[in-house]
């Protein structure tokens, strides 16, 4: 009996607040735009709510999904989100790897402090970390002031409200997620393997490519997924650092919902985003399972 | 290898500079006299004064704190239960679905979680406000708690629990007297994680809040959208200071408890 309660409480909670809402999104994405309930119904009572849901059940079709393929905006936004997420994941990897490598080679007694320094930004508000770049990248911001002062440029660059700013924002905010798994694999790496490679005639660089990188593969893969998956649906970074030309699907969904108040289309956008995410999530899960089995 | 090569020194220096310079600049300019966030005009703490006089910010901070305390506590209870079920529950119908529902919210884009919960709340006619934000935050942070707690439960020596049961404890007593004290550090870090996630969340709160409740991230977001402002810098500085003190304290506590444990182990080894 006690066991039943123990299972039932979290189970029912997740069913009611995770699975059921998702089924509702699916239903609404299949319903007609014209049938959309008004965005604001503070007087909405329970019976009208059920009536609303029953209406959605009445007329299900793929009209909204057809609409997504017809209007350029959506597929361009999906493609551009995929591209931005991919490119910024690669950039994050390039920035994170040397840091993780340096941490793993640092004297033993420094490592806990270095770890803490990487984790600290993770506990700091995401919004604040994104905001901190607004003052740096703006027209009269520090980066422009610095570059003007050194004489590299003669006119301030427009960085804020461009895709460049979005890349910087993603690399900056997701950097700890890439550093930590790579550091974890590099930390366990047996230095004598590299020494052996060098003794056997490898140059430092080829020992790095032939020994260190393959042995840290699991950390690299885990880090890439941890950056890529949330970056794909990112909303805060493109809306604060990006410009009007920055197309990311999280922002499109938000605007579809809050500005255009088109709930069925917003739901359809969400369903397609999730279908796209299923591929990397399943791959990530497989990779984690393989890794756990390898450790056994 | 005790000394860093120059390459590692440079990459560590540049890496940590990249991580910390934006925050340092943010903090410095919270003490700026001028309204401009990029031109230094002398030291002043007036933005902190303005912040504390701004009722809208204070209200939002209060809402955020309430939501965070309730949702993280609820999430810790539910998440610990879920972790226990996952690790100790054995086989039961729908176990795969259960573990799927625990892991899926971790990778679900916030916009989708927010949208789906909002549509649910509207569907069942629930008035949106602090209560609905608490429900939403509890749902996603209980999954984080359960991941943290179950990773501790997996490494836990089950014979300790069995010994307690053999010695006459009821299962509930065994849990309270043996299991809970051992997994307590994981439960506490789960709570802290849930608390931080709730404090931090903008997207899900924006969907589920409705017009009656505004959280601090929502307030920050709406004012930052119009451009940088020294008041937000002041607020950010306070939040960074709290987090820094918290993280350093937590790491000192774990450090000393690890040292204590090691000492105890050494003494036990010497005694035997």
UniProtKB/TrEMBL annotation, chain A:
<feature type="domain" description="ABC transmembrane type-1">
    <location>
        <begin position="78"/>
        <end position="284"/>
    </location>
</feature>
<dbReference type="InterPro" id="IPR035906">
    <property type="entry name" value="MetI-like_sf"/>
</dbReference>
<keyword id="KW-0812">Transmembrane</keyword>
<comment type="similarity">
    <text>Belongs to the binding-protein-dependent transport system permease family. CysTW subfamily.</text>
</comment>
<keyword id="KW-1003">Cell membrane</keyword>
<dbReference type="InterPro" id="IPR000515">
    <property type="entry name" value="MetI-like"/>
</dbReference>
<keyword id="KW-0472">Membrane</keyword>
<protein>
    <submittedName>
        <fullName>Putrescine transport system permease protein</fullName>
    </submittedName>
</protein>
<feature type="transmembrane region" description="Helical">
    <location>
        <begin position="12"/>
        <end position="30"/>
    </location>
</feature>
<feature type="transmembrane region" description="Helical">
    <location>
        <begin position="207"/>
        <end position="229"/>
    </location>
</feature>
<feature type="transmembrane region" description="Helical">
    <location>
        <begin position="113"/>
        <end position="134"/>
    </location>
</feature>
<feature type="transmembrane region" description="Helical">
    <location>
        <begin position="77"/>
        <end position="101"/>
    </location>
</feature>
<dbReference type="Pfam" id="PF00528">
    <property type="entry name" value="BPD_transp_1"/>
</dbReference>
<feature type="transmembrane region" description="Helical">
    <location>
        <begin position="265"/>
        <end position="284"/>
    </location>
</feature>
<dbReference type="GO" id="GO:0005886">
    <property type="term" value="C:plasma membrane"/>
</dbReference>
<keyword id="KW-0813">Transport</keyword>
<keyword id="KW-1133">Transmembrane helix</keyword>
<feature type="transmembrane region" description="Helical">
    <location>
        <begin position="165"/>
        <end position="186"/>
    </location>
</feature>
<dbReference type="GO" id="GO:0055085">
    <property type="term" value="P:transmembrane transport"/>
</dbReference>
Automatic annotation (TrEMBL), chain B:
<keyword id="KW-0472">Membrane</keyword>
<feature type="transmembrane region" description="Helical">
    <location>
        <begin position="130"/>
        <end position="154"/>
    </location>
</feature>
<feature type="transmembrane region" description="Helical">
    <location>
        <begin position="60"/>
        <end position="85"/>
    </location>
</feature>
<dbReference type="InterPro" id="IPR000515">
    <property type="entry name" value="MetI-like"/>
</dbReference>
<dbReference type="InterPro" id="IPR035906">
    <property type="entry name" value="MetI-like_sf"/>
</dbReference>
<keyword id="KW-0813">Transport</keyword>
<protein>
    <submittedName>
        <fullName>Putrescine transport system permease protein</fullName>
    </submittedName>
</protein>
<dbReference type="InterPro" id="IPR051789">
    <property type="entry name" value="Bact_Polyamine_Transport"/>
</dbReference>
<feature type="transmembrane region" description="Helical">
    <location>
        <begin position="12"/>
        <end position="31"/>
    </location>
</feature>
<feature type="domain" description="ABC transmembrane type-1">
    <location>
        <begin position="61"/>
        <end position="253"/>
    </location>
</feature>
<dbReference type="Pfam" id="PF00528">
    <property type="entry name" value="BPD_transp_1"/>
</dbReference>
<keyword id="KW-0812">Transmembrane</keyword>
<dbReference type="GO" id="GO:0005886">
    <property type="term" value="C:plasma membrane"/>
</dbReference>
<feature type="transmembrane region" description="Helical">
    <location>
        <begin position="174"/>
        <end position="194"/>
    </location>
</feature>
<keyword id="KW-1003">Cell membrane</keyword>
<dbReference type="GO" id="GO:0055085">
    <property type="term" value="P:transmembrane transport"/>
</dbReference>
<comment type="similarity">
    <text>Belongs to the binding-protein-dependent transport system permease family. CysTW subfamily.</text>
</comment>
<feature type="transmembrane region" description="Helical">
    <location>
        <begin position="97"/>
        <end position="124"/>
    </location>
</feature>
<feature type="transmembrane region" description="Helical">
    <location>
        <begin position="232"/>
        <end position="253"/>
    </location>
</feature>
<keyword id="KW-1133">Transmembrane helix</keyword>
């Amino acid at each position: 009996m006690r066991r039943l309660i123990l299972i039932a409480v979290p189970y029912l909670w997740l069913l009611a607040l995770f699975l059921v809402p998702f089924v509702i999104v699916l239903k609404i994405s299949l319903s007609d735009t014209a049938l959309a309930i008004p965005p604001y119904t503070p007087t909405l009572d329970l019976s009208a709510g059920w009536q609303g849901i029953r209406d959605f059940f009445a007329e299900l079709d793929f009209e909204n999904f057809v609409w997504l393929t017809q209007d350029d905006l959506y597929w361009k936004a999906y493609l551009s989100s995929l591209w931005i997420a991919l490119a910024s994941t690669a950039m994050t990897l390039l920035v994170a790897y040397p840091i993780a490598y340096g941490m793993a080679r640092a004297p033993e007694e420094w490592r806990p402090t270095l770890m803490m320094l990487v984790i600290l930004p993770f506990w700091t508000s995401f919004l604040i970390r994104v905001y901190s770049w607004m003052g740096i990248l703006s027209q009269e911001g520090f980066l422009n002031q610095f570059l003007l002062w050194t004489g590299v440029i003669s006119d301030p660059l427009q960085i804020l409200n461009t895709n460049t700013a979005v890349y910087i924002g993603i690399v900056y905010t997701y950097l700890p997620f890439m550093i930590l798994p790579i550091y974890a694999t590099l930390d366990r790496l047996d230095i004598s393997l590299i020494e052996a490679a060098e003794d056997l005639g490898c140059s430092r660089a080829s020992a790095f490519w032939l020994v260190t990188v393959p042995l840290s593969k699991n950390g690299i893969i885990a880090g890439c997924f941890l950056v890529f998956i949330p970056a794909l649906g990112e909303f805060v970074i493109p809306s604060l650092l990006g410009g009007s030309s920055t197309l990311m699907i999280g922002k499109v969904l938000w605007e579809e919902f809050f500005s255009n108040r088109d709930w069925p289309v917003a739901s359809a956008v969400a369903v397609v985003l999730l279908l796209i995410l299923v591929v990397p999530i399943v791959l990530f899960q497989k990779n984690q399972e393989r890794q756990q089995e390898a450790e056994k | 290898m005790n000394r860093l090569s120059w390459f590692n020194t440079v990459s560590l220096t540049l890496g940590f500079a990249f991580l910390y310079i934006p925050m340092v600049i943010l903090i410095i300019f919270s003490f700026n006299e001028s309204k401009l966030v990029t031109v230094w005009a002398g030291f002043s703490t007036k933005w902190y004064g303005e912040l504390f006089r701004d009722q809208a910010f204070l209200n939002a901070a209060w809402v955020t704190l309430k939501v965070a305390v309730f949702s993280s506590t609820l999430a810790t209870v539910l998440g610990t239960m879920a972790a226990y079920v996952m690790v100790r529950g054995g086989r039961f119908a729908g176990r795969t679905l259960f573990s799927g529902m625990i892991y899926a919210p971790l990778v679900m884009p916030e916009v989708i979680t927010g949208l789906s919960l909002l549509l649910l709340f509207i569907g069942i006619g629930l008035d949106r406000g602090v209560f609905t934000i608490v429900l939403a935050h509890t749902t996603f942070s209980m999954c984080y708690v359960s991941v943290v707690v179950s990773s501790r439960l997996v490494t836990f020596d089950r014979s300790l629990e069995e010994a307690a049961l053999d010695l006459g404890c009821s299962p509930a007593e065994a849990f309270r007297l043996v299991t809970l004290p051992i997994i307590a550090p994981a439960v506490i870090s789960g709570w802290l994680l849930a608390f931080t996630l709730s404090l931090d969340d903008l997207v899900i709160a924006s969907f589920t809040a409705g017009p009656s409740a505004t959280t601090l991230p929502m307030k920050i977001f709406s004012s930052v959208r119009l451009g940088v402002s020294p008041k937000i810098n002041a607020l950010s500085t306070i939040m960074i200071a709290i987090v820094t003190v918290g993280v350093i304290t937590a790491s000192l506590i774990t450090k000393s408890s690890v040292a204590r444990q090691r000492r105890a182990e050494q003494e036990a080894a010497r005694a035997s």
